[in-house]
Amino acid sequence: MYHTNAELKAAAKNSLRGHWFPAITMQLIMFLISTISLGVNDSDSAILISLIVSLLTIWLDVGLVSFYFKLCCGQGGNAGVADFLYAFKNHPVRFLGNYLLQTLYLLPGTIIYFIGIFIAAIFFLAGTDIDILMLYLSGDINYLPDVNLPASVASALVLFIIVLTIAYILYAAWISLTYSQTTRILVDFPDLKVTQAYKRSSQLMKGRRLRLLGLQLSFIPWALLSVVTLGIGFLYLLPYMGCTNVQFYLDLVQSNSST
Q: What does the alpha-carbon distance between residue 66 and residue 250 come to, in Å, rounded to a whole number?
């Protein structure tokens, strides 16, 4: 029997009790690290620093998952900022592979989406004066050419782009939900291969995608409130969500093992 969203959230709050300070500290560290590249003016340096920060963020995110795991499993006494080192101590390449594999799963849909946008652009350009368009792109003129497409064609193009975008969003959401548990599985089972974690996540999430989607959407009011408070509310929301997501995973595992 699965727990309700309210029960999972209550369990997350209970796990965080007495551990809010390290949780908030870790989220602040993540924020500061993610903004490092913003202060770099040199474009080449900015690209290099952004790459390093992206890699570092992948591994530090795993550390956060390890931290929340300890809280949710009653090991709060051993949880702290030192959990940031978890990925570095437990085969860091696995977690990088986890990130790359999810990107690869998204790749087919992404390619199809951009091919569709390219085709729509070709039809759009067919209704313009190409000479004027090239002058605009070269900077010789500062106005775009008029588009002389029939209304039916223009409407069809708009509808095509809308449908294509919605389909891509649904595809990306399906991939994200299906393999949403891979990082938690890799933390829970340190010797498991990435491909095995993906297979296990797919099995755990079978028929449970909408349940997780509903859980994530239930945090929207908190997110809006966090924006209103100029981001301060995220210091509460992010640990709350992180712990709730681990509680969701533990609930999945427990419910599947009892069936």
A: 13
CA distance 117 to 124: 10
Per DSSP, the residues of 38-66 read GG---HHHHHHHHHHHHHHHHHHHHHHHH
> How does DSSP classify residue 79?
-
Please choose, from the candidates 161, 151, 200, the residue with its C-alpha nearest in 3D space to the C-alpha of residue 180: 200
Residue 143 has pLDDT above 90, yes or no: no
Count other C-beta atoms under 10 Å from residue 128's C-beta: 16
Predicted structure pTM score: 0.85
Q: How many residues does the chain have?
A: 259
Torsion of CA 21, 22, 27, 30, to 10 degrees: 140
Question: Which are the contacts of 30, defined by CB distance < 8 A and separation ≥ 6?
Answer: 57, 60, 61, 64
Q: How many CB atoms lie within 10 A of CB 88?
A: 13
Measured between alpha carbons, how far is residue 77 from residues 70, 138, 192 in Å? 8, 63, 26
| Res 162 pLDDT > 70 | yes
| CB-based contact 164:117 (threshold 8 Å) | yes
Contact assessment for residue 167 and residue 160, using Cβ atoms and an 8 Å cutoff: no
Instruction: For residues 258 and 250, give the distance between their C-alpha atoms in angstroms, rounded to a whole number.
Output: 12
